[in-house]
Amino acid sequence: KEMYHTRVRPGANAYNTAIRDCLTAPVIAGINMSGHIIRICADDDFKVRSVRTAVFNAANDLLEEGPAMTEGNNCWRYTVITDMATLTGGRISVEVSDLPGNVSRKEMAL
Fold first, then answer.
1. What is the DSSP-derived secondary structure letter of residue 5?
2. How far is CA 75 from CA 27, 33, 38, 51, in A?
3. Rounded CA separation 21/64 (Å)
4. What is the b/e burial string over 14-47, where b = at least 16 CB atoms within 10 angstroms of the residue's CB?
5. Which of 16, 44, 51, 61 is the most buried (most CB within 10 A)?
6. How far apart are CA 19 and CA 71, in angstroms?
């Protein structure tokens, strides 16, 4: 509850802020890929806890997955280690979670 005190809006209190966070899932604003770098832009009304990325090939086989690292300004970065030639026709799946455990998912075709 203490961490919610830091982000209380006018007319609200930490309890209201925590309840709002519990009821609101994070938003994935965009997924972009340039070379081996995937950038994810995501936001939450309080705080994004984690961003996980999974890479699949055209046959829907999971090639790799892992956490994205924060770059600040609501952006995260994941570096793909799989050979780029194997990704044609595949997809990227991103999962973003906030402190109460709300999860949002978004995919991008490759």
1. H
2. 12, 13, 10, 10
3. 31
4. eeebbeebeeebbebeebebeeeebebbbbbbbe
5. 51
6. 28
Residues 57-106 pLDDT 10s: 999 999 999 999 999 999 999 999 999 889 999 999 999 999 999 999 99
What are the angstrom distances between the C-alpha of 51 and each of 2, 30, 64, 86, 100? 24, 13, 14, 23, 14
Q: pTM for the whole thing? A: 0.89
Strand ranges (E), 35-109:
37-43, 48-56, 62-67, 69-72, 75-79, 91-98, 103-109
Locate 22 and state its tokens.
């519990």
Q: Which residue type does 17 have?
A: T
- Identify residue 43 by its one-letter amino acid code: D
Average pLDDT, integer, range 11-21: 87
Place of tokens 């990325």: 53
Q: What is the pLDDT of residue 1?
A: 62
